[in-house]
Amino acid sequence: MTPEPLKAPDIAQVLKANRLALARIMAVRLSVTVLSVSGGVALSRITESNSVFFTLPIVFGVGVFVLTVHRAIYGIRVIQCARVLRDYPMEFHPRVIKKRERWTQYGNVYEVRVTTRGQHGAPLMLAVNAAGRRRWPEGVEEGAWLAGDLPFGGVLVVPGSNTMLFLKPADWEKTARKREEAGVERTAKAERAKLNNKTQWAVMMRPGA
After folding, report:
1. Angle at 160 between CA 157 and CA 162, to 5 degrees
2. Do residues 163 and 137 lie in contact, with contact meaning Cβ atoms separated by under 8 Å?
3. Are 204 and 77 in contact (CB under 8 A)?
């Protein structure tokens, strides 16, 4: 019996899920900010004290707010993924191998290899979670949906969870020849999807970020 073909995820649902996940993260942080600042102010007024002890929650809350604004740039990453999903169809790849992982202020950056049956030499890619989560998505090793063009970059969607990972080549110069050989049509498509920039300038993947 011929196996039933895999059904690609609904792009609208994937984008909606990631926007909501990002909104929840931001809402929690803003709630912590409000509670910390209001709590510190209330304690200071109730006790009629200017003790440094009562200013600590306020300082903490302001710090969380600054980090929240700083991390709001995640929204740019979701927009970038939306561009890719608009211009590229999704194709299922049977295996995603995580090589290593590093912590950055914008989220964990993973080095991965997306394999394709019958092909060798898949480039090593950098991957970051579109919505800002730091944990490695479960089940991605058993395959995921890819939209994009690996020498330029793309988006990986994990089946069943709508988790999105934004991809760029780990070594931009090493994959330069494949981009040069891509042809006019592929290059133009990568430019429309904003995938034609160097990895070091890609959103959330700058060295030291």
Report:
1. 40
2. yes
3. yes
